[in-house]
């Protein structure tokens, strides 16, 4: 969405910034929210919350405000919300748009791709510490702002419904891919049947949601808090592996077991003993589940006409699904090695 600079200046001026606004520029690689950097005496990030993706913005902002204030009392950097001139955590404009401002973390950068195992270890350690630091957040529970977000069984049901309806006539173009997804259905029950504890988790643990120092490459803090809500810790770990422990092989994605070990070691070190045995038992299985879940979502969106994920071509979501199935096959082929790695590392999380 395009936003005229004068409008952005009027919005930003309604927050408690330090000094007059000198410059506003669009930044970021995000696919959901619009993000701008503001320069005045200090620097800030102005964001428009996408209320199509997040239909309960008041709950999202209440969650974020509670998380930010809690993390401010912990060691290290964390996001800081800047209040409006009226003392609110967000601004709602006359047209119903929701805006917020964070203080910009200087000398920070984000990696779009994981360059090495050290970076993987540091990112995972920061994400593990994030869960540990939120484990003592006082009641009441955070809002469940996206119900069923990681409900793999519901995602499978959605795909079955989309395939039966075939509203845009694409089911015949999926070849064997659709049937393959249905054959893998037992994966949908892997985490739910284990009766693991519900924790406060991030739910979107891509590598670029950890900020690093641009010179030392030390991990600084976790960002993109819109999806922080009650959930399973292993969903966070599985998504981390899916996004940061893969390498291309002849154009297909495969699991890098060395990167998997770096991520697992860092995450468990950051958690510092938080996990229960039921969670530790499924460390090697979680990446398969979350990879399968995202493949289900891509196929569902393809069959329904590509309404959720941004695409550059009509068949892109189908290709994304097929790439994830290649990655899932790689994980399944290397499952025994993943279990051995988990066994070596799990003493850190016990």
Description:
There is one protein chain. The chain contains eleven helices and twelve strands. By secondary structure, it is of the alpha+beta class. The protein has two domains: 5-105, 2-Layer Sandwich (Phosphorylase Kinase, domain 1), CATH 3.30.200; 117-348, Aminoglycoside phosphotransferase (APH), C-terminal lobe (Aminoglycoside 3'-phosphotransferase, Chain: A, domain 2). It has a five-stranded antiparallel sheet with strand order 1-2-3-5-4, with helices on one face. Strands 6-8-9 form a three-stranded antiparallel sheet, with helices on one face. A two-stranded antiparallel sheet has the order 7-10. Helix 3 (117-134) runs antiparallel to helix 6. The N and C termini lie far apart (47 Å).
Strand content: 5-15%
Number of strands: 12
H/E series: HEEEHEEEHHHEEEEHEEHHHHH
Fraction of helical residues: 40-55%
In CATH terms, the superfamily of the largest domain is Aminoglycoside phosphotransferase (APH), C-terminal lobe
The radius of gyration over CA amounts to 21 Å
The largest β sheet comes out as: 5 strands, antiparallel
- Summed up, the helix count is 11
Distance between the termini: 47 Å
Average pLDDT metric? 94
CATH topology of the largest domain: Aminoglycoside 3'-phosphotransferase, Chain: A, domain 2
As residue ranges, the low-confidence spans are none
CATH architecture of the largest domain: Alpha-Beta Complex
Task: Please write out the topology.
Layout: H1 5-12, E1 23-26, E2 34-39, E3 43-49, H2 57-71, E4 91-92, E5 98-103, E6 108-109, H3 117-134, H4 152-165, H5 177-183, E7 199-201, E8 210-213, E9 219-222, E10 229-231, H6 233-244, E11 246-249, E12 252-255, H7 257-271, H8 277-280, H9 286-303, H10 316-333, H11 335-345
Antiparallel strand pairs: 1-2, 2-3, 3-5, 4-5, 6-8, 7-10, 8-9, 11-12
Helix pairs in contact: 3-6, 3-7, 4-9, 6-7, 6-9, 7-11, 9-10
């Amino acid at each position: 969405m395009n936003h005229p600079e004068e409008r952005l200046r009027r919005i930003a001026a309604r927050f408690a910034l330090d000094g007059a606004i000198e410059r506003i520029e669009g930044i970021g690689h995000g696919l959901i929210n619009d993000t701008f950097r503001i320069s005045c005496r200090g620097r800030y990030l102005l964001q428009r919350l996408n209320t199509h993706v997040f239909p309960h913005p008041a709950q999202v902002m209440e969650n974020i405000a509670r998380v930010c204030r809690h993390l401010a009392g912990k060691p290290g950097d964390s996001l800081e919300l800047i209040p409006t001139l009226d003392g609110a955590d967000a601004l709602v404009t006359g047209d119903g748009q929701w805006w917020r401002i964070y203080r910009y973390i200087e000398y920070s950068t984000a990696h779009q791709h994981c360059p090495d195992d050290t970076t993987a270890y540091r990112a995972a350690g920061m994400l593990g510490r994030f869960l540990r630091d939120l484990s003592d957040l006082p009641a009441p529970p955070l809002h469940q702002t996206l119900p069923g977000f990681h409900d793999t069984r519901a995602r499978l049901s959605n795909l079955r419904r989309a395939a039966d309806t075939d509203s845009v006539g694409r089911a015949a173009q999926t070849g064997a891919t659709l049937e393959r997804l249905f054959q893998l259905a037992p994966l949908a029950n892997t985490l739910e049947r284990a009766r693991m504890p519900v924790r406060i988790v991030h739910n979107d643990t891509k590598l670029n949601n950890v900020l690093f120092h641009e010179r030392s490459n030390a991990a600084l803090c976790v960002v993109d808090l819109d999806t922080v809500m009650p959930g399973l810790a292993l969903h966070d770990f599985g998504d981390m592996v899916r996004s940061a422990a893969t390498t291309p092989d002849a154009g297909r994605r495969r699991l890098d077991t060395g990167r998997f070990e770096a991520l697992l070691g860092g995450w468990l070190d950051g958690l510092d003993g938080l996990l229960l045995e039921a969670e530790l038992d499924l460390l090697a299985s979680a990446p398969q589940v979350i990879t399968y879940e995202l493949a289900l979502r891509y196929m569902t969106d393809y069959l329904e006409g590509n309404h959720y994920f941004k695409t550059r071509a009509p068949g892109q979501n189908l290709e994304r699904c097929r790439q994830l199935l290649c990655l899932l096959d790689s994980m399944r082929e290397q499952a025994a090695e993943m279990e051995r790695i988990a066994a070596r590392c799990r003493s850190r999380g016990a």
